Amino acid sequence: MSSLYNSRNPAGVAVGQLGLLTTVLASGVMDCHTRGIAAMQAARQAREEHDTHAALHHLHRANEELGILAQRALEEVARLTRANADLQAEVRVRQEHINTLRVQRTAANAA
Question: How far is CA 42 from CA 26, 28, 35, 61, 64, in A?
Answer without folding.
Answer: 24, 21, 10, 28, 33
